[in-house]
Design a protein that fits this description.
Length: 94
C-alpha cells in the first residue's frame, strides 16, 4: 500500500521551506527588481519613466513600497554612474 504521509526527510524539507519561504520570496523579488533596474540602465532606457511599471509588476500601489526592494549593488551603481556621466556631459538624457 502506498505511503500517505511524507517521509521524515520530506517532513524536514517541508518545515525548512515553510520557515524560509517569506525570506526567500523577498530575496527573489529584491533580486529581480535590482536586475531589471540594472538591465534598464544598460539598455539606456528612461529608468524614471519605467519605475512605475516595475512597481506595478511587483504588485505595489506606489514607488515607496518598491523602494524597499531596491538596494545599490556594484553593477547598479556602475550603470547609474555611466548614465549620470552621459547626462552631465550632454549626451543622451535617457
Amino acid at each position: 500500500m502506498p505511503r500517505l504521509s511524507p517521509s521524515p526527510r520530506h517532513q524536514i524539507l517541508i518545515q525548512i521551506v515553510a520557515r524560509f519561504s517569506p525570506r526567500l520570496s523577498r530575496y527573489i523579488r529584491h533580486t529581480a527588481a535590482v536586475h531589471r533596474l540594472t538591465s534598464w540602465y544598460r539598455q539606456g532606457a528612461d529608468v524614471q519613466r519605467l519605475l512605475p511599471a516595475l512597481s506595478t509588476y511587483l504588485g505595489h500601489a506606489n514607488l515607496d513600497d518598491t523602494s524597499v526592494y531596491l538596494s545599490m549593488t556594484p553593477e547598479l551603481l556602475h550603470e547609474a554612474s555611466v548614465c549620470f556621466d552621459r547626462y552631465v556631459n550632454g549626451g543622451d538624457h535617457g
